[in-house]
Amino acid sequence: ESDTASEISFQFNKHKKTPSVGSHSSDMASVSSVSGSVLSVYSGDFGSVDAQGTVEFALDYDEKNREFQVHVSQCKDLAVVDERKGRSDPYVKTYLLPDKARMGKRKTSVKKRTVNPIYNEVLRYKIEKMVLLIQKLNLSVWHNDPLGRNSFLGEIEVDLASWDWSNRKLNWYPLKPRSLSAVNGVDHRGVMNLSIKYVPPGSLGKCPKNPPSGEVHIWVKDVKDLLQLRPSGVDPFVKCYVLPDTSKKSYQKTRVIKRDTNPVFNHTIVYDGFHTEDLKDACVELTVWDHEKLTNHFLGGIRLGLGTGLSYGISVDWMDSTQEEVALWQEMMSAANEWIEGLLPLRSL
């Protein structure tokens, strides 16, 4: 039923505090650095003002330097955030979607006490033109609060595939409320189809020691609707760790599937060394990556566990399973020796 069966013995260290995931490998470190800053287009939005006003900008692509340029000129008639003082301190922020984590955000300087700010700044992205044409530009205006309680003032979303690149002139555009595509679709990273099973110690056959310790089986079937980072697609593969162990003993991976945003892996991983009581403190982390020569790019992942925030009494940030992930893990714990199937959305870990 599967092309590969990887079996690894897993030993828990119940007394040693495990460092955070981000410190164990270059790939995982990149996930950690991403998750702290650009997980949401609307991160830090504490405002309740209605979007109004206009923004003047122009777009250009520098073929020689392979650089996308957003010329932000000015805004007019923005909403007033602090009505008591009659002020807003606006700045402009841009993302390239859907892959905001890889491309990052750009933003202008903050203009104090004005609803008609003048910027005359250029926000730059080093990116190939063919990759740019499968992105959308999200340009939003924000009020800057010294305590970080920033307020959303309006946005515009541009489909770069249909943009008229001969138009390099500054033009005015009305600012709109939050777009449904950005709110609901920005963090859609695809879905993983998998099954999991727990085999308790001594539960197979007549021999009381078969198996000698408990086993967790993970059958990664396929993934659908991955982010397309390049016109040719992506070269995805799946990594697996059983946390808190992030050593090479715990690390397993599937093969790489070339140029496919709907890869079929059909790959089974078996971890032994599990006692039944370990299931409430362990977490199976499955992450999907785009394989490239110099560095792999994170596409999304899931964490299967109880999501309690604790592992062997120690507070850990990776014990953060969603309700769907927790439900799958709980069903596996209560149905020994049975495959439990799930279809789970990938997320930014």
Automatic annotation (TrEMBL):
CDD domains: C2A_SLP-1_2, C2B_SLP_1-2-3-4. PANTHER family: BITESIZE, ISOFORM I, SYNAPTOTAGMIN LIKE 2. Keywords: Cell membrane, Exocytosis, Membrane, Repeat. One of its GO terms (cellular component) is plasma membrane. SUPFAM superfamilies: C2 domain (Calcium/lipid-binding domain, CaLB) (SSF49562). It comes from Bucco capensis (collared puffbird). Its main location: membrane. Pfam families: C2 (PF00168). Coiled coil: none annotated. The lineage of its organism: Eukaryota, Metazoa, Chordata, Craniata, Vertebrata. Residues 51-173, 188-319 form the C2 domain. GO terms for molecular function: neurexin family protein binding. This is Synaptotagmin-like protein 2. Residues 1-27 are annotated as: Disordered. GO terms for biological process: exocytosis. InterPro entries: C2_dom, C2_domain_sf, SYTL1-5_C2B. It is found in: Cell membrane. The gene is Sytl2_1. Residues 1-12 have a biased composition (Polar residues). The keyword Transmembrane helix does not apply. The keyword Membrane applies.
